[in-house]
Amino acid sequence: MRSLPVLAAFALVVAGCGDGGGETRATPAPSSTTVAAPVSQTGFTFPPSPETPTGPLPPVLARQLDELFEGLRVGVGVEALELIGESGDARVAWLLADILRFVGGDGAAAAVAAFERLTGADVAADPLSARSPWQSVTNHLIAWDLPAPPGYLEWKRIPFELIDPRWTPFFDDTGAAIDWRHVSWGGVLIDDRPLGDPNPCPAGCIPALDDPAVTPADEGSWYPDDGIVFGLVIGGEARAYPKNLMEVHEMVNDTLGGRRIAIPYCTLCGSAQAYLTDEVPGRVDPLVLRTSGLLSRSNKVMYELTTLSAFDTFLGTAVSGPLQDEGVELDMVAVVTTTWGDWKAAHPGTTIVARDGGIGRSYPDDPLQGRDSAGPIFPIGDTDLRLAAQEQVLGVIAPDGIPVAFPVAAATAAIDGGGEVELAGVRVVVDGGGLRTETVAGEPLPSHQAFWFAWSQFQPDTVLWRLP
Questions:
Q1: In this structure, which of 78, 173, 336, 346 has its CB flanked by the most CB atoms within 10 Å?
Q2: Coil, strand or helix at 433
Q3: For residues 260 and 253, what is the distance between their CA atoms, to the nearest angstrom?
Q4: Distance (Å, rounded) from C-alpha 332 to C-alpha 458?
């Protein structure tokens, strides 16, 4: 078998069986009279979904997949990829996408060719393929909602566990409410440092910041007035979390207003959220949230350190482990995205996280250096065309359970012009130069900003406010 050295291929990323007698079916497509063909973030229209068989994989195909994935420990089997491309079972295209995440060169070319053979798609027709064939291939599969093959997870887990064996508990949980088709590697390892550890991860992770030191507003002149902060008020106590620190840590465990909280910031989604992590039924100690290094449709997968339970970060719902078994859904707190100058003017008693985070670290003013300026860099599939993929929206769940989104720029302009912004029993109000929501009766509602693609894919039934 001709193969490529597996460690060299991975380094490019870092800088059940049966007789196969199932019938063929087409993946259900939306009615052309009501829904347009799926479109990517660049406006590319995805081709029609390929037909897929049902039932178990043919034994010969299953053996070829065994050979390919077991061989990853020593190399990437180019010939095995070519044989899989000739199998005629488009369901295994998901496994080709997983291979693409970890390889380059001849291995990547062989995986793309096999994908095209299986699906009939021309990957080069998608503008995103020039930057990332893996992103394009995975976007096709998500947009088609193609079924995964039987036994998918047992093959998929192999390259992930080669990268970081500490992800094994997530893959071992057969009852996890995780759509593994959408899970990808974010390019970093799991953060499993104990609570309060100020040191970076030895092998590389996104290190959470625990119980950061804070300073009063009048000692926060180190941060520019036009610098972006994420503002919270809990129990009458206000605090600002500077964006440049959050871009480095992407998770803070803290205490504010007498409550224990965790603040995940998904830079890829443009979304800072805040969850109460104390008073979880059946739990004495507060939860400790960490970044797993995994992504789901470009949204970070967070997990709880002591139980190894994964969470849907956007929804605050436990999707694996003991906390899923207990049905844990975290309560959310409103996060206001604004500037430091406006926030401290509106909340003069606020504190701000200290310049060094209390851990003696220095932070660049712009850690990401425009990384996401050309659009999402990880797979998101098709997009909701009502807004541009990265337009900022203020998202909230209305009192009747309906998800509602308010485009931030339009809502701000309407309020500045003396108008009211209301929809589905929700009113948008200004707080410290940013926006938050409340009921029409004035009761606060937890809300946060996010890129439209992120909010709409996790809340697909969203009602969108428009200017009158």
A1: 336
A2: coil
A3: 8
A4: 16
208/195 Cα distance (integer angstroms): 9
80, 96 Cβ separation under 8 angstroms = no
According to DSSP, the β-strands at 251-256 and 237-242 are unpaired
CA distances from 271 to 66, 274, 403, 408 (A): 39, 10, 16, 13
pLDDT band at 17 (very low <50, low <70, confident <90, very high): very low
Tell me which amino acid residue 416 is.
D
Cβ atoms within 10 A of the Cβ of 321, count? 22
Strands (E), 332-454: 332-333, 336-339, 351-353, 392-397, 403-407, 422-423, 426-431, 434-439, 444-445, 447-451
Between CA 101 and CA 135 the distance in angstroms is 8
Neighbours of 175 (CB within 10 A): 10
Burial of 294 (0-12, 13-18, 19+ CB in 10 A): buried
**Tokens linked to 276:** 């109460």
Q: Taking the mean position of all CA atoms in its chain, how far away is CA 350?
A: 30
Measured CA to CA, the distance from residue 407 to residue 395 in angstroms comes to 9
Q: What are the percentages of helix, strand and coil residues in the chain, rounded to 5?
A: 30, 25, 45
Q: Cβ–Cβ contacts within 10 Å for residue 146, how many?
A: 20
DSSP code, position 421: -
- The strand ranges marked E within 3-54 are 3-5, 24-26, 51-53
Render pLDDT for 61-113 as a digit per residue (tens, 0 to 9): 999 999 999 999 888 889 999 999 999 999 999 999 999 999 999 999 999 99
- Tens of pLDDT, residue by residue over 179-221, are 999 999 999 999 999 999 999 998 899 999 999 999 999 999 9
Torsion of CA 283, 284, 286, 291, to 10 degrees: -50
* Secondary structure class of 215 (helix, strand, coil): strand
Place of tokens 């027709």: 125
* Placement of tokens 């995964």 in the chain: 148
Q: Show Cβ contacts of residue 413 under 8 Å, excluding neighbours closer than 6 positions.
A: none
Residue with tokens 């992590």: 277
Number of neighbours of residue 197 by Cβ within 10 angstroms = 14
On the 0-12 / 13-18 / 19+ scale of CB atoms within 10 A, 119 is buried
| Positive or negative torsion for Cα 248, 249, 250, 252 | negative
Contact between 293 and 190 (Cβ < 8 Å): yes
φ, ψ of residue 392 in degrees (nearest 5): -75, 130
CA 434 to chain centre: 24
What is the rounded CA–CA span in Å between residue 418 and residue 322? 49
Q: Find all residues with CB under 8 Å of 97, minimum gap 6, and list them.
A: 115, 134, 137, 138, 141
